[in-house]
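Handover notes (outgoing to incoming on-call)

Open items:
1. ATP citrate synthase: sequence verified, structure written out, both below. Nothing else pending on this one.
2. Nothing else urgent.
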Amino acid sequence: NPWLKTTKLVAKPDQVIGGRGKAGLLAVNKTFNEVKAWIMERMCKDVTVAGITGQLTHFLIEPFVPHAQSEEFYVCMQSHRYKDEIFFYHEGGVDVGDVDSKASKLAVPTGLDVSADMIRSELLSEVPPGKQQSLALFIKALFDLYKKLHFAYLEINPIAMIGDSTIVPLDLVAKIDETAAFLCASMWGQLDWPSPFGRAAYPEEALIRDLDGKTGASLKLTILNERGRVWLMVAGGGASVVYSDTVADYGFGHELANYGEYSGAPSTEETYLYAKTLLSMMCRHKHPEGKFLIIGGGIANFTDVAATFTGLIKALDQFADQIKENNIKIWCRRAGPNYLEGLKKLKVASNKLGLGIKVYGPETHITAVVPMALGLVPVIEEPDLSGGSAPPPVRKLIPVKNKVKVPKAQKVPPKGEKHTIVTSTPETKAIVFGLQNRAVQGMLDFDF
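ATP citrate synthase structure tokens:
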């Protein structure tokens, strides 16, 4: 670009960082050589911004736009459940302050439009009259684009309106609604999803993300602490939250290494690749106290537990020596279609490989393996998996000190009613949004 050497420049980190100006991460009104020197001083160096330490790896160079402080404004758009909201403040820049409390706001109910006249009357009273019309038309066009491209948040601070009424956005941050990809992916083009500042992106995360994009199943992986001791391989988005919260509740949040899920009936090969990725990262750094792999999940609706465990066992077989070398203890609690066959296969593989895996089914509470794995409660006896197609024996209740009184039977329903509480009846109509025949059929089969 020829303007690099013919005009003054601005340079700043192009990463997910807020408050760059206050952190001294802006170079303003510099020559190209000065900008290069400024960037090289900071490239791949650790900095701390708002208490978060991370490495600067990407920078942006743009033309410097001379303007007065009085020509800077602030504009922001946010989406809420039933409305969009436009914020405007007649001052902008690094020291704009708490805009939530002092900005003018215009609420636009979902599905409705806004006119330039509404914007001018509701938001621009503090703007010089000669600039109001042009600025109102710009904000109107920006809001139309905001809705068309399904943004969830968009902030320009500052936006400069220089002498000839030219409008120049000087700094912008935005979030898009990823679930709208089916509507406007072609308009978005190729998007890169940057990692939060302070957390490096891992190639393993990219691998699972790529795998997730090629399958109808759901495969997710986020590395929280690659040296952590507690690793999770959890089936189901809801279960993954429950297990992560349970680890944190027991005081091991700082040791939680990953967050993710494998669900939606992944194939044997997909489960193998997912498990292989986790195990390779677990074995990367030894820990003197060893590590834990907790394989968990609720009662699956339509995921074939036996099929997914075949992939898991393949990965365990491949990493058996490294698992023992790194003193990794494996705990499993799983249920769902063909769970008994899957648990049997896992236990046989454990005995064959000498891994000592503790295996539990639906007779055990969904997160009971977490405190047992962490050594916080006594280990309960594993269920007998030697039976045929019959489920394992009913679990033994854990004795508690404070016994809860058994509630009395419900009252008789009022005349003409079937229930005393709001619940489903055979006449209840269920509306499924985003119909997936296989999922719904599996739920119906399971529930009835």
